[in-house]
Structures are given as C-alpha cells and as structure tokens.
Specification:
This protein is mainly α. It has a single domain (4-120), classed as Multidrug-efflux Transporter Regulator, Chain: A, Domain 2 (Orthogonal Bundle), CATH 1.10.1660. The chain is 74% helix and 3% strand. It starts with a helix and ends with a helix.
C-alpha cells in the first residue's frame, strides 16, 4: 500500500490532483484506521489509465462518466466501449492534425535553412 505522496511521486502528478480525482469520484482510495489515504496496485493501474486519458485530451467530465460506469459494474460495458471508441476516434483526429502541422513546420524549417545557406554564400 502506498501513501498519497508516494503515488503522486510515482506517477508524476501532485497530491492536489489525487485529492481532486477523489473529490470528483474518479478514484476512491482505501482509508486506513487513522483515515489516511492508501493506494494499491489496482489504484495505480487505474490512475495510469486516467492520466493517459487526460494526456490525450479527454475532458474530465468524460473521465468522470467513464469512472462512474466502471463503478456501476459490468452491465455498463457497452456504454464504456462506446465512450472509449469515441475517444479513440478523437485521438486519431488529433494525430492527423499534428501530422499536418509537422509537415507544415518541416516545410517552413527547410525554407529557412535554404534561405540562410544562400545568405552565407
């Protein structure tokens, strides 16, 4: 079992973020006899997944929705699948946008390099 500080350090997030996720019912840590938060391996795996969803621009409201569906149980599997498929589509669109931006930047960088090499001559 890990403390809130250990989890925050392991995952590279703040304790404030972990408390926020708890407040928003995205995660429910175990409480020890003194009321301190404790996290096990399943919490860590869940948080790693949540962090990836957040990094890929899934809104907190959708993460909360997904967490709620998980909490409700297996009968929500179809809804969870649909939510994740929608997010995967969103990620693919983000990738296309980033690839187009990368190509534009590559073209612009090449143009500057050509211009600068001509200036040196």
């Amino acid at each position: 079992m890990l403390t809130i500080g250990e989890v925050a350090e392991n995952l590279g997030i703040s304790t404030h973020t972990l408390r926020y996720y708890e407040k928003e019912k995205i995660i429910t840590p175990i409480r020890d006899t003194s009321g301190d938060r404790r996290y096990d391996d399943s919490h860590l795996k869940w948080l790693q997944f949540v962090i990836k969803l957040k990094e890929t621009q899934m809104p907190i409201a959708r993460i909360k929705q997904y967490a709620s569906l998980v909490e409700e149980g297996e009968h929500t599997a179809q809804e969870r699948l649909h939510l994740l498929e929608d997010h995967k589509h969103s990620i693919k669109e983000q990738i296309k946008t980033l690839q187009a931006a990368d190509e534009m930047l590559e073209h612009k960088i090449s143009a500057y390099k050509d211009f600068m090499s001509k200036q040196e001559k």
